[in-house]
Task: structure prediction
Amino acid sequence: MSGQDKKWDELSKILQHNPEMHDAAGQQRKIIIFSEHRDTLNYLQGRIAGVLGNSAAIVTIHGGTHRDERRKIQALFRSDPGVRVLIATDAAGEGVNLQQANLMVNYDLPWNPNRLEQRFGRIHRIGQTEVCHLWNLVAKETREGEV
Result:
């Protein structure tokens, strides 16, 4: 074990150095990051807050988020210009319109490829005015990488 999280390193690069992260005016674009597990979601929330320097810019949705709270979080992500990052498990992956974002990262890949399409469909849908970008992070030399 190297003690390094290569997937985090790549996500950090996307968040800090990818030109797609900012619009023409230099404003940081909204991004959705999907993880498979709540522990990973919590880990990413802390790491991303450190990079952004603002934990209030991050909202999360997971399986334990009640329906009403989930709706409030989705509305906040859609309408509050200060909320830039949504970190979610698949609890936010189906039937939700989040096209205020046009950037998405799959930090963990689901075993079912149909779920990848469902996730991307949250931003890439009729009415989206921006080009959508998707990054799938895969750990080499792991079972995930083999699949």
In short: Helices lie at 6-17, 38-52, 67-79, 113-120, 143-146. The chain has a mean pLDDT of 88. Residues 38-52 form the longest helix (15 residues).
